[in-house]
Amino acid sequence: MNIQAEKLEIMKMVLDTENPSILQKIKSLFIKEKDFWNTLTANEKEEIQKGIDELERGEIYPYEAVMKKHRK
Predict the structure, then answer these.
(1) What is the pLDDT of residues 24-47, one digit of tens each?
(2) Contact yes or no for 37/45 (Cβ under 8 A)
C-alpha cells in the first residue's frame, strides 16, 4: 500500500470513529512527534537542565563576557 492510500484509510477511520479516547490518542501521537525534547539525547537534556538551574540561581553571564573569554 502506498503512503497516500494509507493516509486516506487512516483519515476515513478517524472520521468514522465516535470514540473520543481514540481521537485523543491519535492527537497525542502527533504532539509527541513534534516535541523537540523527545529528539534530544539524555546528555543534551541534562545540559539544558543544568543551564535552567543556573538561571534560577541567578548565575547568569552576559553574552559578550562569554564570547570575550572564548575569542583569541
Answers:
(1) 999 888 877 677 787 889 999 999
(2) yes
Query: Which pLDDT belongs to residue 69?
Result: 78
CB hemisphere CA count around 56 (13 angstroms):
6
Residue 40: CB atoms within 10 A of its CB come to: 13
Q: What is the mean pLDDT of the chain?
A: 86
Is 26 exposed, middle or buried, given 0-12, 13-18 or 19+ CB atoms closer than 10 A? middle
* Distance spanning both ends of the chain, measured CA to CA: 58
DSSP string, 32-53: HHH-GGGGS-HHHHHHHHHHHH
Who's near 23: CB < 8 A, 6+ residues apart?
14, 17
CA-to-CA distance for 25 and 33, rounded, in angstroms? 12
